[in-house]
Protein 1
Amino acid sequence: MLRVLIFIFIVNNINGQPDHHYECDVRAFPEGFLFGTATSSYQTEGAWNKSGKTENIWDHLTHTQPYEILDHSNGDVADDSYHLYKRDIEMMRELGVHFHRFSISWTRILPTSFPDEINQDGVDYYNNLINEMLKYGIEPMVTLYHWELPQKLQLMGGWTNPNIINWFADFARVAFELFGDRVKYWVTINEPYQICNEGYGDRNMAPMLNVKGVAEYICTKNLLLAHATAYHMYDREYRSKYKGVVFITCSASWYEPESQDHYGAAWESNQFTWAQHLHPIFSHTGDYPRIMKEKIAAKSKEQGFFRSRLIEFTPEEIKFVKGSSDALGLNHYSTTLVYKNESVKHMYESPSFMDDLGVGMASVNDRQGGGMVDDVPWGFYNLLTTIREEYGNPPIYITENGFSTKAGLVDDDRVTYYRGYLSAMLDAIEEGSDIQAYTAWSLMDNFEWKMGYTERFGLYEVDYNSSDRTRTARKSAYVYKEIVRTGTLDMCYAPDLFMPISIDEGH
Ligand code: NOJ
């Protein structure tokens, strides 16, 4: 492995975590390592009611309660990728990425929510997208569920209705049948924590159900069973024919103790948040983390419930969910400090997930970039190392990582973020973590959910005032392109922004 180390210095940040700074270091990624970009359907496609597509929960929320979105915007047009997908693929070619991750809008291919009617226009759109990507050697990585539940299913309880297991499995079957011959990477569900905790136990995401301490746990159990059902279906009926991989993508922030007195609080935060989903699938127990089960059962009893609000798995369900993922899809953005003291006792509504967890949270460095993500690369290293040690080193695809800024083409903060996080990831790889792919979120600016278009995550900037939603490469796009082209991370590479970003031969 080529590694030219010119100058290393290690500083200790506020928590005594080593921060590795490799100034002008050039570090190589492993042979065969894959780089990609990501988007999702609601955030980019637009055409919300074109060609037979029906309403999903984000259409419903943005149309009925526009004031819930910071800039009162919606995804009706978004980046208009439904019409401009060829330009998107041109950008992927400019970057030279090996794969691109996008999602399928459920109601665009199944307008009734069910498989009784398949919308040919929707199918044509995804066929065109997939075929055009493959024409240029870009592998499609397809997410089945990136938060766009059909509104009709929400009316019937959405993820709190156990029938969702079959509804989702039917949708997955239709997608495997239609696209499985060409799609080899399938993400079943994106970010269970955001779906259930933020959408059902809080009001940060659609459907903003906010039935705290109850709905998120019902949602999580149904979601994990739905995921496992789709996984086993592929395994049984499609794998030998199509030879793809199927996995779930979980979000994981890293929780760090505010000081050494708070290790327990940090450990519990990691257990309650991301280990909630990793444990049932990747641990030998096949169940929720023990601390979660114990704390929620005890609290529930204290509160007068007749049983734990955390809906436990039966022994059969444990067997069914355990091992139901060919890899771990991991979305990681940032790190939060946690503490536990007397003040925390009455900090949260009761019952609620946060009350069950019972810790206080603070940000690490006050968002120096001005956006919603704190740049804390060492947290990524800690997370990856912990997953390697706790779960027997599962194969990992980083399915999202990225930084948000305000508009502007010279995005030095994003460049610094990407370099720091890629370097932290390389540290973990060099210590043995089995990380096989990295995905930058996002290919271009898009609808950032309740933040509307105010937070921009794109390697390409999108001009929302232009009718063709003009996409322009930012500095970070040039930097990422060079990383993909060389398979190395050069901490001092300075792109020439006056040269147009062009498509290299072979792309
Ligand atoms: C995770 C989500 O999957 C994606 O939709 C979102 O835009 C990014 N995080 C950034 O918040």
Protein 2
Amino acid sequence: MKPENKRIVVVTGSSRGIGAATAIKAAELGYEVCINFVKNESAALNVAERIRSHHGKCIVVKADMSKEKEVIRLFEEVDKKLGTVTALVNNVGVVREKARLSEMTGDRISDILTANVLSCLLCSREAVRRMGISFGGNGGNIVNVSSAASRLGASGEYIDYAASKGAMDTLTIGLSKEVASDGIRVNSVRPGYIFTDIHANSGDPERVEKLAKSLPMQRGGDSREVADAILWLLSEEASYVTGSFIDLAGGR
Ligand code: NAP
């Protein structure tokens, strides 16, 4: 394929859950994929193996997306091994045990904001520097994986996490306007209860099963349903969509 026709996507946090489903779907649609993980190498290698077994192209990069030097290193590795990135999915996101704000430590709050917000800002910056027409790029796409929590607030559970997703939503709105004339679209998905490992980190691995019946659609979501929306936002079919949000929360 000619270099100018290549589609190259960085999916942060793509060893498991929504990120893994997005990486696999992107490869099925012909993207070359940078799979990123921070701890679970075997999960990341499984995603790579699935992609390669269907003749897709991918690289696997271990990097903590909340650390500036590691973000820069990941994007430089993509430059060298795949080419100039054309799409970024800011998927990294972490949550901690359920707690009220009055019980949270400053370190916990800082960790959540760093992992969820700083990572998104740093990765978006690196992508804009490569995709932006004013930087010599050909334009591109960014999708931020936010959460229904940004609308609902997660009171009594994890308002630190909800606030971090609210910051991501503001970033989606602001950056979409800032880089529209640079040929870059910026959009967001806001999932609700999706079956992934993240709920174990909040101390409630059965969370989705327990709460699913309270939703209008009475079921939890599958990572692939979120991946489908992300890939649509990245596609030409969404060519006039920017600064937009797709809520995937079963009607909540
Ligand atoms: P998950 O199953 O817990 O997977 C998290 C992924 O992020 C893993 O691949 C993990 O890598 C990676 N990761 C975590 N911190 C990282 C860091 N600092 N640098 C690089 N990679 C890192 O999560 P998920 O449920 O798929 O969530 C994905 C996104 O969707 C998050 O932004 C989350 O907030 C959002 N979301 C999820 C739900 C839900 O119900 N699942 C609902 C709303 C929004 P390792 O494998 O190496 O640990």
Protein 3
Amino acid sequence: MAIILGIESSCDESAAALIGSDRTVLAHRLAGQEEAHKPYGGVVPEIAARAHVQVLTPLIAAALKDAGLVLDDVDAIAATAGPGLIGGVMVGLVTAKALAMAAGKPLIAVNHLEGHALSPRLADASLEFPYLLLLVSGGHCQILRVDGVGQYRRLATTIDDAAGEAFDKTAKILGLGYPGGPRVEALARTGDPKAVPLPRPLLGSAEPHFSFAGLKSAVLRAAQSGAHRPEDISAGFQQAVVDCLVDRLERALAKSSECSPPPFVPSVSRDLSQPSEITSLDFARDKRDFAKKPKTLVVAGGVAANGAIRTALEALAARHAMGFVAPPLWLCTDNAAMIGWAGAERFALGLTDPLDIAARPRWPLDPAAEAARGAGVKA
Ligand code: KG4
Ligand code: ZN
């Protein structure tokens, strides 16, 4: 069994975990920064980076102690190298590089989104490729066809806000505080989802993309009108998000076997014009393999913690005779276990990275994906 140290620092959670290649979570530690960002109603990048500097190394030491291990017992060190708030990403990546150099261990630069995308396979050993993945977090809202480690075809993205961002902004408008998702969900439980008429942007449109900016503006207008109870606005908003996610996934399901196979992207740092030692590996590039319809619907990312969304997606999967996998809640929001697991999946394929690898504020899982029509700079 290989043991991987995972490090996460791309947003407002500092985290360290020790993961076995047999899926054992030997230790996982997490330090949130909720209090530090609370006065600002959102994550302040500079404050986040400084907090990672303070807590990350003691957190790694604590995780090693929890697992009863020393650095020498670890087979590789995996850290988020992007995308995310660059100051924080640099703190985690440089920490991983220093440890890798000092201990003489290989470094694995993990795409944070790949961490989310593969996390369901840590929780569920029976989850096989290909699967259709709804990746919904504070920064991203994408539908991906996952054909293997490093093999992602993006079928849809948001043309403006991410779903988690819409939850956070709704919470801010309603004065619920930060982070918004869980608070909106809690308030929605006592509200009537039909009481406030709210739009479902892009519902029924041909491409499976998302849009949440118009919904957010409608929530603001409903709140400012003073005519509605906050619990009804919360319930109406959550129902609108559920309806959009389900409708867009229906569209993506129809498209998921029409698209072309994804390119295999081995690493951030490798010069892709040069032959790589791993191109000979037999990845599922065969056209017949790709024609296989995904048998499982998977949801990952922080918004996947939402109960109403999980219930609706489970029903959608059942309608399509597909399996449904959602990781446990602690694995949905940012954590280091998913980074350690993505590291373990990469390590098993011989995918390690050089010490001069760069941190990346932006790092798409499918670099060949076309920009969504109408997309602003956030896409
Ligand atoms: O994956 P994550 O921890 O960080 C990013 O990579 O963005 O996702 C955080 C997002 C936040 O926008 C948060 O409000 C949302 O996930 N979230 C939820 C819930 N729990 C967290 N949204 C809706 N319902 C929830 N229960
Ligand atoms: Zn995340």
